[in-house]
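Running log. JK asked me to keep both predictions on one page so they can be read side by side. First protein, sequence followed by its tokens:
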Amino acid sequence: MFVTDPIADMLTRIRNAINVKMNSVKIPSSRMKVEIARILYEEGFIGSYEVIKGESINDIIEIRLEYDSGKTSMITGLKRVSKPGLRVYTEKKNTPRVLGGSGIAILSTSKGVMTGKKAKKLGVGGEVICYVW
């Protein structure tokens, strides 16, 4: 299956898995998707992630979703910001805040993929990939 926006596909798969209360979701792997999964894990939005080596060329990322005691997901929202048809960039002084700091912005910078807070701390700007809250 050919996907024109693989990051939006990843976010949609996570969103759909949360809506039906699945414990994990499998996503085709890429370096960018692994970095996004790493940030989601470090920020406490997912339980864990693992890259499973495929028999063929494609690897798979298995993301284990995190729920609290009331079966409420740690992720309440995901929004793709920069799209293939309209790239969105930010300067270091205008790094976006999501829901007053309770969410995160994931940026692709010259120093790698990181949260908006870390990018602001390092003094770099970049492409705004998505918001997670």
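And the second, directly underneath as requested:
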Amino acid sequence: MNTSESLGYLKGLIDGLELDVTTKEGKAIKAIVDVLDSIIEDVQENAEDIADIYDDIDRLEDDVIDLEDAVYDDDDEWDDDDFDEFEEYEVECPNCNVVFEVDEDTFMSGEVQCPNCGETLQFEFEEDDEDEDEE
């Protein structure tokens, strides 16, 4: 027996008692039954709202999956080789001896500022032996 059925049964028992609702006891019992009835209605409305929310979540989840499929097509999945393009270099500041990392673009630009002391570090690149042979 669910809650609303139980309340119906309780109402039937109270009606069978033929209580006088003009007395204090009768008024109190009627008020208790009315409050219980109101609580059951609220709980049922909440249960329906929760069911609607779950339906909305399921639809949103399906939409997100569709978007992921569209954006991250299986052919475009990232693998470890994709991250090789983004190398980082460890640099030690000769002024304050702090070691920090810079990305490849910053390193290749030829200079970087130390995040600790603000010293501008410049990088010099030596030409490969192959480049010298071509000259």
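Observation for JK regarding the second prediction: The first strand starts at residue 88 and ends at 92.
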